[in-house]
Amino acid sequence: MNQLEQLKQYSEIVADTGDIQLLKLFQTRDATTNPKLILDAALNTGYQPILNKILAESKQDDNSGYPQSIRFAAGFITEIGAELLQIIPGRISSELDPRLSFNTKETVRRAQYLISLYEKKGISRNRILIKIAASWEGIKAAEELEKQEIHCNLTLVFSLIQAAACAQAKATLISPFVGRLNDYFSSHNIPSPQSPGVELIQSIINYYTGHSMSTEIMAASFRDKQQVLSVAGVNLMTVPPDILNELMKSDDPVTRKLQYIASNPEPALINYSNREEFLQALAQNKAAYALLKDGIFKFTKAFLKLRQIAFQQPKIKLLFSVLSAKISQSLKM
């Protein structure tokens, strides 16, 4: 039994790819995409027919009230998602425009739009996870969407502060980022007795289990195979193809690394009643605050690059859009 097969005994493995052939190879239940993976698909000649088809369709007004650029992006994301759902038996995570990360009302509206596009393709909303950044506004949007049975994957989670707020909102799933958190500690020369990413996952497991919270934990952002093996036992993990391939090639033993560790008393219940409380708490965690802000911006750049490629915009327009987004987001955090 190879390491991937062994790992599946402890955690649900999710493929972090939009490549259909790789999904067939790894045979995972679920798949995740993000703006970078969608951009990669747009640059892949194999997806050119899909891109051209959606670009042509986006020229037709669909009565959504959205401009062509948004209709195209939503159409391309859901078309790729629909293709992937023909391969996998489970769920696909589809990310919203990251520029909406600080706008609760428009996040809800855009998520409803994406779900409507999936449902027009005959795909149940139960197979879709709408990926939203775990900002305060994103978490509040997820709270509203979950009431409408639109399930959410709150991503860019770097702290128990965010994880607690996501569970309070009854989000279906969260994605704590292991590799990026480790990178931050390393690049800032912050000493840590063990992996900060693993410590974060363990603390969330303890908090959620101790308070009987149903939000699923999907570990994400892995830099190497050892990081993946270090969180064996978490509910789910989304793993890039290169690491999945390494796991398939090794028969070394895999053991469970994470499980609930009871404490007496259990960790105190964390509640945030407003944006100010949440941001004040988050600002105390410099790594989480910086990484959330940076993650939203990186996804925004990939999203804007997709638009530039599809509409053959000049690079100066892309640079202006990226700069405008950075200024706007800097004012929100």
TrEMBL record:
<dbReference type="Pfam" id="PF00923">
    <property type="entry name" value="TAL_FSA"/>
</dbReference>
<dbReference type="InterPro" id="IPR001585">
    <property type="entry name" value="TAL/FSA"/>
</dbReference>
<dbReference type="InterPro" id="IPR013785">
    <property type="entry name" value="Aldolase_TIM"/>
</dbReference>
<protein>
    <submittedName>
        <fullName>Transaldolase</fullName>
        <ecNumber>2.2.1.2</ecNumber>
    </submittedName>
</protein>
<dbReference type="GO" id="GO:0004801">
    <property type="term" value="F:transaldolase activity"/>
</dbReference>
<dbReference type="GO" id="GO:0016301">
    <property type="term" value="F:kinase activity"/>
</dbReference>
<keyword id="KW-0418">Kinase</keyword>
<dbReference type="InterPro" id="IPR018225">
    <property type="entry name" value="Transaldolase_AS"/>
</dbReference>
<keyword id="KW-0808">Transferase</keyword>
<dbReference type="GO" id="GO:0006098">
    <property type="term" value="P:pentose-phosphate shunt"/>
</dbReference>
<dbReference type="GO" id="GO:0005975">
    <property type="term" value="P:carbohydrate metabolic process"/>
</dbReference>
<keyword id="KW-0704">Schiff base</keyword>
